[in-house]
Amino acid sequence: MAEVIREIRRSDMKRYIELLRLGYSEGPAAVDTVNALVQSARLYGRFFSLWKCLSYLNLFPTIIPKILVFEKDDVVVGVRNTRRRGGRNGPFFIAHIAVDPAFRRQKIARRLRLYFEQNLDPDTSHIILHKVLETNIPEINNSEKAGYRVYARETTFFLSPDRWSETELFLNNRVNSSMTLESADPCKPGWREIKNLKPKETPAEVMKFDPQAVFPFGRSPGISNILTNIFLTRPEWKGGIIISGELAACAILIYHRLQHTYELDISALPEAGDAVYMLLLQVMKHLSGRAKAPVNVIACDYQESVVAALKDSGFSVKEKKRLYYKKIEPSLSKKL
Fold this sequence. Notes:
Largest sheet: 12 strands, mixed
CATH class of the largest domain: Alpha Beta
Number of domains: 2
Oligomer: single chain
Number of strands: 12
CATH topology of the largest domain: Aminopeptidase
Shape: globular
Strand order of the largest sheet: 1-2-3-4-5-12-6-11-10-9-8-7
Radius of gyration: 21 Å
């Protein structure tokens, strides 16, 4: 049987979308995940020539992915989407791997992984990042056998529109009756303030492997942010809480027009639990006059005050993921 691993072509786009639907059609976040991936794939197809040109020139690598396909007997049966995180020289991030269910357990994902790693520049070290659902035991086993190690765990919380009023009432009662933060003041923080807060809540080992962890959500650096605003979405609201003259917590809210969902990013100092409740109340008051849609919040395990406030406020768990990293050192033969 003829088997080939190669870069994606325009003629593969329809099959690429089909594999995304097949590969991500299960799990609690299946609808949101598939919609987001398919919309992105359609954008790649619509601007295919431009996308391939930018990819060839290595421009905007944080939003221009490298997509490999596994072809068997002239049929694409597996795909892998990889991009940079944090900038041109940042770590590689495996955005997704999808294999046709009829061809699973044939080590196709493993061979796509090996092909990518073996074609990296052997003269420099590389970091590769990967997210795996906690329920995906086969992929967890495959990742750990391939040398990937966990550096954090991530939970996606969500709040359905029919719970908005209940959550706002709870937060209003909590803030008014049980908090004594007399020095806490709401504010509209600037992007520089938000950027400075991120490292204070993020462990050094996480920043070491994943610089994206400290980027203000929805605020990618440089022209990548402009392209994101044009083709995808932009922040519609941001707010913060200042305690004793220092920004203790901040939130950025985005409405995804294509997915019809809100996405909320929250950052807070480790000891600023009460500030998170105050901030969530601001978010709910803002949403009270907006279009009804689910609210998704992604939080990592080290954001203990954020995770506790979300659970307490009625947000439900949608899915949990393990965040993996792998470091590839320069080739020994090159050193010698």
